[in-house]
Please model this.
Amino acid sequence: MKEEELLRTFNKQVEEDRRIMISRSNINELHKVLEEHELSCMELLQVNTDGVILTKRKAEKVVGWARNHYLSSCLLPSIKGERLNVPRESLEIAILRLKEQEMISRKPSQSLKNLAKDEYESNFISAVVPPDEIGVKFDDIGALEDVKKTLNELVTLPMRRPELFSHGNLLRPCKGILLFGPPGTGKTLLAKALATEAGANFISITGSTITSKWFGDAEKLTKALFSFASRLAPVIIFVDEVDSLLGARGGAFEHEATRRMRNEFMAAWDGLRSKDSQKILILGATNRPFDLDDAVIRRLPRRIYVDLPDAKNRMKILKILLSQEILGSGFKFEELADATEGYSGSDLKNLCIAAAYRPVQELLEEEEKV
Model:
């Protein structure tokens, strides 16, 4: 009993020594980064860094978050010796944020590794985003109400309420949807929001995801994608720029490996369509629908046009984009919405970003004059 007690005491002391060494290393990394950025922290030695191991990159993240937190929460920042003095509380809040991020990223990857059966399926682990981590909902999209309603009926309801669609053949869940329309209209954003609303895992793939320099690997990767997705269900497989991956076959410059990969993709897709119980959806997006192969279009029975927003919807988008910004008194959303005819949602965002930079440019110009 005495030996066990001594062993417990020894292990406890080793653990405490390890904690102190990690804490000193963390403080040292924070000190280096603060010095590099000409910042200071009067209570740096009292900062609690338990639960994290800071590398230089992580320390830079923590200091950046802490500085932003402090500057956004105080009216008169503390300056000591021409350096901004970052308080201990802001650093600890930033460290807590880092811990939460690491905890979230660690959990899904560990469970997904257990789901992947071989090296080919393991290639898709990093592409999987659980629904609670996507961070986009339909409410965050300030337009496209008809499109959102249609997607809700086609995807969200069948995934969340499958009992409503279990009778007859006409109500069978849709296995393929195509979003098409001009660039920048929010097709990718819609896909992410749809996964959140449906409570489905989200896998985004491109041509590079399922191609390989080794002959025959592309077909194996394609087969692995669908077998891995079947164990992740409910899942939405999003194919952005679907025309580049599944364009018309038979061209003079088509490579044999590309043709075989496309055939394998469509064969696996047909396997999904024959299994109504599997909650897997292929969601394609393109601004060049006429370049798609006829066989692919047949497998995408629901095609939804995502158009440029009208003045009313442009105003909705602008209100969402500017909801967290400081606007001048009497800011006229209606006038801006009317003046941006032909703008897509992406164009409106870029316009707002350019406007947000303008005060910074004016400040720099004033400083140069002085």
